[in-house]
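Review this fold:
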Amino acid sequence: MFELMQLSQRTCYIQSPAKIGLVKLDGQEVCLIDSGNDKDAGRKIRQILDANGWKLKAIYNTHANADHIGGNRYLQGQTGCKIYAPGIDCTITRRPILEPAFLYGGYPCKDLRHKFLMAQESDAEELTPEVLPEGFELLPLPGHFFDMVGFRTPDDVVFLADCLSSRETLDKYQIGFIYDVAAYLKTLETVKSLQARMFVPAHAAACEEIAALAQYNIDKVWEIAEKIRALCREPLCFEALLQKLFADYGLTMSFEQYVLVGSTVRSYLAWLRDAGKMNVLFENNLLLWQSV
């Protein structure tokens, strides 16, 4: 873990739970794509920088999930580097309490205020094409999180953030986190058509071809949507639906899984409702979902 993997003359990634991109700029300057999940990740990145005599100029965050911005504060404090994050995710990077609050739907209790769901604050600025190094391309990848982006580096390596999961992860956990299902499917269709020297998803192996894995993720979304519709043939409240999904997929409930999977299932319900495939009823002061 935290091994530096060379992909091309200028582009590397650091092997970690969420892969961290490292791109060589001019002279001894480098930039990072994301920063890992916590201060310890930041320390290990700093060791790699020091061992190679590199100066960290900037961190470009793909989105504001804690496992992608957790090393920001440490690295910024140690190096004085700039930090950039896209759109709404920039606000969350500056005020990380917003992530567990969004997931929970209210003020998060201490069970949810930990480094896996809430990074330390960092002084992020708005990520725009103008702040990128020469030769970089910004790739909008919405769906998984609010304004998530990827990057194409000057030597044609594409970092895909969390827009897809490995087959192994999907087969094990089944329901991957999604904020906006319609945007997520559109992003995956776009990713299917991308060409690059190498693709680096944050949670899947680096590869030269990405279309088949993108399609596998698309198929899983439709599978889950159909399962939700099947379970809701008779009216169900949200908690009962979530319980049945966990039982059918053999998942184990915890506070973290409740908010992550629960938020995702609400996103599926909203998408299906907007598409005219789900009705809502109110009975005995319960909101019930029923497929059309």
